[in-house]
Amino acid sequence: MATAAQWIEGARPRTLPMAFAPVIAGTAAAYQIDPQGWLSAGPVPAWARGLLALVVAVALQVGVNYANDYSDGIRGTDDVRVGPLRLTGSGAAAPASVKRAAFLCFGVAGLFGLALTVSAGMWWLIGVGVLCVLAAWGYTGGSKPYGYLGLGDIMVFIFFGLVATLGTTLTQIGRVGDSSWVGAVSIGLFATALLMANNVRDIPTDREVGKITLAVRLGDTRARWAFAAMCAVGALLPVVLVGQVGLWALLPVAAGALALSPIRVMLSEGRLERAQLIPVLKTTGILSLVFSLLYAAAMVLGA
Fold it and tell me: Comparing C-alpha atoms, which of 65, 216, 76, 68 is closest to residue 141?
């Protein structure tokens, strides 16, 4: 039976900044677009809706991590791998237990998502929530998981970038604007870069078991350069908001300095063992979180 520490490791805490980042960026964008509307959001304050969105995002992130652990584990994808502990593949936890943990997280996300829907008065968001859970499970679950077809990167960009960030803004002020779109694209690129780093590390083992990720399709060299491009574009994109928030828009660009280290490691092709790519996941997650905090500061100061 897995220990508490193993369950925590199985939740993949290195990926959790990707749950915080879109909510932070989306909340800041809401304030920048309509400060008065954000401050007078009705009986449920905008910041409270932001907290509800944060719980939903974290629960979905952990849920998809456990679901991925379960589905890859029972397929044998994780039997031989380089990287952090996998509960199912290592035998630390029974597959059924990992599956229950995934759906427990989805249940928590659903409850808090329903509370967010009610407080925002946007009932159609229930459909969006259902799509999020289906996407989380379908990444490696089901008979034809899209993560095995090279579509995981696109879905991560859509759900952990666009949907999470724009949805946060929308539930707080009822509309989105340029700042929410810029934040959504940047955060989506960082989330996709993190997945790319993970999949570059696993190219040899994924190819052997028929998991044809985008990294496998691109090949090692082009996948590494794709990672670098995602980080660079994500960090530089806020420049387009200079006309709206002034030179404050350059503040999140400074987070690009944090991208230099993971980019250097990723482009050190042929010099590093794949196990040495593992820290890139952590640094990319930190990059996303720091970017979102600086983005928030820029949006508030430039509002």
Answer: 68
